[in-house]
Amino acid sequence: MGTGKTGGHWKPCNIGSVEAHNERRPEYLESVKKAGLGLYFFEHLTEHNDHWVSDNVRYKGKTVAEVFEAMKKLYKEKTGQLPQLTNKIKVNKKTGKEYKCAGWSPIREMCPPIKEDTKIEDFEYLKKWAKKHGIEIIRIDLHKDEGYYDEKTGEYKMNYHAHVVASFLDWNTGKTVKPNSQAMSEMQTILAMALDMERGERKANTGVGYLDHPQYRKMMEAIDGEKKEIIEEAKKEASAIVDEAYKDAVAIKQSAEDELKSIQAEVKKAETRLKGLTTMISNLEAQKDNIEAQIAALEDEYAEDKEQLEQKRSELQTKLTGIEKKIAEKQEKFNTAEQQLRDINDQFTKIKEQKEKYEKDIRTMTDDAIKRHDKINKAISQKRAELAKMDKAGELTRAEKHIEERNVVIYRRWPEARNAVDAIFQLGNSTTAKDFTPQQALDVEHAIATSGTSRTDAAKNLLSLTQKEFDDYRTPRGYVEGAAKLVNSIAQGTHLRLTALLRSQPKDAGGGPSYITDLTDWAGNQIHR
């Protein structure tokens, strides 16, 4: 099994920008640059990307947006009503608890991690799985150019992944197919085997749900930051222990060096003493030789005076005996000094060997300590990273839950906002509409007028509510901004279509309707006429 984990989670597809984003079309790149977002991929690596599009007549030669329009038309033909695209909050009649009912999403997308050498052909088994469960793969795009440069570490972090766009529509009924959990689990296994990668951990085991790329990147950046802090702490801990051991070893080594210096000084003294004794012995032996020569010459010098000869000989013999005694004494001292020098040299050799052993121990101790604490550091980092990952994912989950709970409360207090949010969402995800329809504009106006706050704040609240829907559907930022401008124009009274419609309202005796409800009812009748 190859390195790396893979897995996928089907989410509503970003209908309006599939081809532009996945194929890196020039107009898409230009729009990203104009928006000042900055490219999140390396253009020189784009040539390594790959693409495949189904040759099924339903999809061949059509954009995903065109396919989606055909699906909406089919749905209306089969059911007699327009599909509900946004999520709805419903109440369980038995328990009284509220729950979220997902909007109609016949086209979904999955972004599984891949390897650098993954090919389109590797997804054949996924196509077979999809066909088995009534799902049709529309297109597959391999992205091998995405990533970012981490300035803190000086490394390029690549994000190899695929975009798998699929149709979950049953073309006979207009409804979407719903694979069960067993089928989805089977898909994860098939995906891992087909891509020669490890299967991702199940949510039931980790408690961590699926994160899309922006969430994943934010989480990993946070984890990387925490991991660096942990590494630094571990390094400091290891360094402190190594320093302590090193100081102890250095102290022992220093003691050995001091002892060596002391012994070296004694060696020099002993050598100097030996030299002095050697010189003294040489001088005494020279004196001895001189006296012996004098004694030998006495017989010739005092041959006729025997008495004087014996006297001189006795004097010289006494001197000779004294010199021989001194020579013996000096020789004994010399032998003692020589033995001391040998002992000192032996001690010097032992201390030197001990010093070298201490130096080796210091190196070994340092290496072992670093290795041991690197191992501890790695284990700590991995454990902390796992905990951090779960914690970050938990924070994201709690944040999303908090937003959903907040929205439920808002809709309960401000029911008029629901139709307005639907109108804003439909406009934001339309590839053809450039403005609200009259009815949609009236829905937004109705919500703003009944909000109980200023019109500006009401517009902000509507856009905040819709943002969750946009995020779930991954609506392009440009589309969201376009819808927001129109909402603000309604709040400011500058929306041309709504203004023209309201100006055509006939005046009554009271100067016009007193409630916005009357106004929207009247305007709605005008639209139907």
Question: Overview of this structure, please?
Answer:
This protein has 14 helices and 11 strands. It has helices at 18-22, 26-34, 64-79, 124-132, 181-194, 203-206, 213-301, 306-413, 416-428, 438-449, 455-473, 477-492, 496-503, 516-528; strands at 5-6, 11-12, 50-53, 88-91, 98-101, 107-110, 136-143, 147-150, 155-158, 161-167, 198-199. It has 3 domains: 5-200, BirA Bifunctional Protein, domain 2 (2-Layer Sandwich); 230-376, Orthogonal Bundle (Helix Hairpins); 414-528, no CATH class. The two termini are 67 Å apart. Helices cover 63% and strands 9% of the residues. The chain is rod-shaped.
The total domain count is 3
Rounded mean pLDDT is: 77
The biggest beta sheet reads: 5 strands, antiparallel
Shape: rod-shaped
Total number of β-strand segments?
11
Look at the structure and give the CATH class of the largest domain.
Answer: Alpha Beta
Regions with little confidence, pLDDT below 50 for 5+ residues = 203-213, 507-529
Q: How do the helices and strands follow one another from N- to C-terminus?
A: EEHHEHEEEHEEEEHEHHHHHHHHH
Structural class: alpha+beta
Number of helices: 14
Please give the alpha-carbon distance between the first and last residues. 67 Å
| CATH architecture field of the largest domain | 2-Layer Sandwich
Our Rg estimate from Cα atoms comes to 48 Å
Helical residue percent? 55-70%
How much of the sequence lies in strands comes to 5-15%
Sheet with most strands: strand arrangement: 2-6-10-7-3
Indicate the CATH topology of the largest domain.
Answer: BirA Bifunctional Protein, domain 2
